[in-house]
Write a structure and sequence with these properties.
Elements (H helix, E strand, L loop, with lengths): L1 E6 L10 E4 L12 E7 L2 E11 L9 E2 L2 E8 L2 H14 L3 H8 L15 E8 L5 H7 L4 H12 L2 E2 L8 H5 L3 E8 L16 H12 L4 E6 L5 H14 L3 E5 L7 H11 L3 E4 L5 H12 L5 E4 L11 E7 L16 H12 L2 E6 L4 H9 L3 E5 L9 E6 H6 L7 H12 L3 E5 L8 E4 L16 E3 L4 E3 L6 E3 L12 E4 L3 H12 L3 E4 L9 H10 L5 E4 L12 E6 L3 H4 L6 H13 L10 E6 L5 H8 L2 H15 L6 E9 L2 H18 L5 E13 L2 E10 L3 H12 L5 E6 L3
Bound molecules: zinc ion (ZN) (2 copies).
Length: 716
């Protein structure tokens, strides 16, 4: 018998498998989906068995499978099928699709070492007359004590220290080693749930209809989490399983705690702060059918649950559901595919869905369910401050209005949240003598000053140098840090308001559980003000916050991306949603140089529908999603000319092989020309049907283009 094995090896053809003979010792245990070690060239590699068959070609000289790894683990039929779908749709190697589904410990790679955890249990050897032994060894009190305990029940070996070893040596006691799961400790929130009539209606509507795709559109604070919980309870009652995806699990500890509090041991959590060993344990619990719910970020969509009845995608607008490295899958597409395989319901939930999601909801492609009211019944009041006027009064950072409100809130012993979506101290460094701007040598990006580490660093590649005032060009001590980052804002606020300021951004949350600790500290009331980047916009509930200030939203609006309007609307309304969730009334102040912009105007009216209509108009005119799909090709090379020449050739190939229904733009220099020492060119394709496109793109990946890398991103 032969096994067709796919291995981790760089081959041009996306799905190439190799056949190996199954030696007799494995013929009874091997199964499709197993991980095996096979010889390849002069080395050994790991791979997955995709097929077992008898089509032996006598003219070939087959080699034998060396070993089966983790024989109790295998990729099940559904995951095998899903990998094939991903490889075809995303134009990437099949093996990379399987690898991305697994925790590191189970990926096909000889480098991985599973850090297993064992315990040893001990019990009396039944074939020995222990009473006789006791009579003969009366003097050995400790041994007899142990035997008497073990007469009652089996125990863990560690309970007895080293004194049990002699009994084991003499075969009076038998010891047995078995693998155990590490205990993952997570906060639990056991608050009881009371549903409002809106929530009840939403639950009933989803349970009682026969559609498979839903969009739960609920304003911030409308209680989507409670709806999810009720739906999940219902699924468990039917003996089915469920998956809940959240954008970034470390940023949503409060939601995870609620799931844990309600479903206890039935839920496995894929948390980014779990060790590899803990992730492996959680995965094993799922494989062994010990859990029926999985909560996690993007990759939890591959959880090997059986009989899935419900998949929930919370904050479905989040860009974190799309993986940025190959395979560039979107977890929502995968959710729909798994929904199809399992005949399960897929529920997307958001207060600010992506335009294409809401458009599908309105068209009936998704069953649209609304939660129009906040549980607290309160919406915050909004003020837009025109910074053109403020800057004439020399108020560049904190406007007069915001200053008054901060003082008022602090004097009432209430707390304030300020959003500034720029981390670091400054946002760029420039010489006031010659105009030199500090840039990363690897990327075409300004360096940013970080005061806490006293360094200039690149936020893209991590390049870092010790800070110095001396200009590398004119050698004057004239380097000035310009622009405002969270670190600088923190120190300004501390001085101005004489209050403890807590900062939450990528720099203060890069250690294990740091995010959770910061949240607990802010809840405890030790701090008056919380300053943070977009990570403070989601999933946080603080009862004592009555004011939110948005410091520089224009920066987010001016990012050159067709989604920047949508993302800014989301960021602002989500951040605004942090106030007025409980008893305190909330106030939100937006400081902008563009007070009339439709994004801000709709945020303050809390009118997503009106924003949707404005934005749809723009998308229609510019032929962007949801009117067209977009595929982008990023061509990179270590020289500018090579990247440029090859992208021109690729563009020509696309022009020749695709008809007029495809709009092909570029090649153009990327908004970041150089990143990590590679020059970047973009080609953009707008289309309505992808059937021909996938074939042509596949041909391009198989063209023998040297010294450039082509990165294809379908449906961006
Ligand atoms: Zn200079
Ligand atoms: Zn860099």
């Amino acid at each position: 018998m032969l096994a067709s094995v796919i291995i981790e090896y760089s081959v041009k053809s996306l799905n190439k498998v190799f056949d190996y003979i199954i030696p007799p010792k494995f013929s009874n245990i091997i199964r499709v989906g197993n991980k095996v070690i096979v010889p390849f060239g002069s080395s050994k590699v790991e791979g997955f068995v995709l097929k077992i068959h008898n089509n032996i070609d006598e003219s070939l000289d087959y080699r034998e499978i060396v070993d089966i790894q983790e024989s109790d683990f295998y990729l099940n039929d559904e995951l095998l099928k899903l990998g094939k779908y991903m490889s075809d749709f995303l134009l990437c190697n099949l093996i990379s699709c399987y690898q991305v589904m697994l925790p590191r410990a189970l990926k096909a790679s000889l480098k991985t070492n599973i850090n297993r955890k064992y315990e040893v249990k001990v019990y009396l050897n039944k074939s020995i007359d222990v009473d006789k032994y006791i009579l003969e060894h009366k003097r050995n009190k400790r041994e007899i004590e142990i035997i008497n305990i073990l007469k009652e029940k089996e125990c863990l070996k560690k309970e007895f220290g080293s004194s049990i070893n002699r009994l084991i040596e003499k075969n009076i006691v038998i010891s047995e080693r078995y693998e155990i799961n590490r205990e993952v400790k997570l906060d639990e929130d056991t608050k009881k749930i009371f549903l409002t009539s809106d929530q009840n209606k939403a639950v009933d509507e989803i349970i009682n209809s026969h559609d498979n795709k839903y969009l739960l559109y609920g304003v911030t604070g409308s209680g989507k989490t409670e709806v999810y919980i009720e739906l999940l309870k219902n699924i468990l009652k039917m003996n089915k399983t469920g998956i809940v995806l959240v954008p970034e699990i470390s940023l949503t500890p409060q939601i995870v705690a609620r799931f844990k509090g309600i479903f206890g041991n039935k839920v496995a959590v894929f948390h980014s702060s779990l060790s590899e060993g803990e992730k492996y344990d959680e995965y094993r619990r799922i494989m062994n059918n010990e859990v029926s719910l999985v909560v996690g970020a993007r990759s939890a969509i591959f959880a090997p649950l059986k009989n899935i009845g419900l998949i929930i995608i919370d904050e479905c607008q989040s860009s974190t559901y799309k993986q940025e490295s190959t395979p560039k899958y979107n977890a929502i597409d995968i959710a729909f595919k798994r929904g199809e395989y399992n005949n399960a319901k897929v529920v997307l939930g958001s207060a600010t869905p992506l335009l294409e999601q809401y458009a599908r909801g309105k068209k009936g492609v998704f069953h649209l369910v609304k939660l129009p009211a906040r549980i607290s019944g309160k919406f915050p009041s909004f003020d837009i401050v025109d910074m053109n006027i403020e800057s004439k009064k020399h108020n560049y950072i904190i406007s007069n209005k915001l200053d008054i409100e901060i003082n008022a809130a602090l004097s009432r012993k209430e707390q304030v949240i300020l959003l500034l979506n720029r981390r670091g101290y400054s946002t760029f460094l420039s010489c006031s003598n010659c105009g030199y701007v500090y840039k990363c040598p690897n990327c075409d990006i300004s360096l940013i000053y970080h005061r806490s580490s006293n360094s200039y660093s690149c936020h893209y590649c991590g390049y870092r140098i010790t800070s110095s005032n001396k200009c590398p060009k004119c050698h004057e001590d004239a380097i000035k840090d310009l622009g405002l980052g969270t670190e600088k804002l923190e120190s300004i606020l501390e001085k101005k308001y004489n209050v403890n300021v807590l900062r939450m951004d990528a720099d203060t949350t890069n250690t294990k559980n740091a995010h959770r600790k910061l949240i607990n500290e802010f809840s405890s009331g030790k701090y008056g003000i919380l300053v943070g980047t977009q990570m403070i916009s989601k999933g946080l509930n603080f009862e004592n916050v009555s004011l939110v200030g948005i410091i520089n939203p224009d920066a987010s609006l001016s990012i050159p991306d067709f989604r920047s309007g949508e993302r800014t609307y989301e960021l602002l309304s989500q951040t605004a949603g942090r106030v007025g969730r409980f008893d305190l009334p909330g106030k939100v102040i937006i400081q902008t140089y563009n007070p009339n912009n439709y994004v801000y105007q709709n945020v303050i009216k809390n009118d997503y529908d009106s924003f949707f209509n404005c934005e749809m108009n723009i998308r229609h005119k510019l032929m962007y999603p949801p009117y067209f799909y977009i595929c982008s090709l990023l061509v990179t090379s270590n020289t500018f000319d090579k990247a440029k020449d090859e992208s021109v050739k690729i563009k020509d190939y696309l022009d020749k092989h695709l008809d007029d229904s495809y709009i092909i733009l570029g090649p153009s220099v990327s908004s970041i020309v150089k990143l990590n020492n590679r020059y970047r060119f973009n080609i953009m394709i707008k289309y309505k049907e992808n059937d021909k496109l996938l074939k042509v793109l596949k041909e391009i990946t198989e063209l023998n283009i040297k010294n450039v890398n082509i990165d294809i991103n379908i449906n961006i």
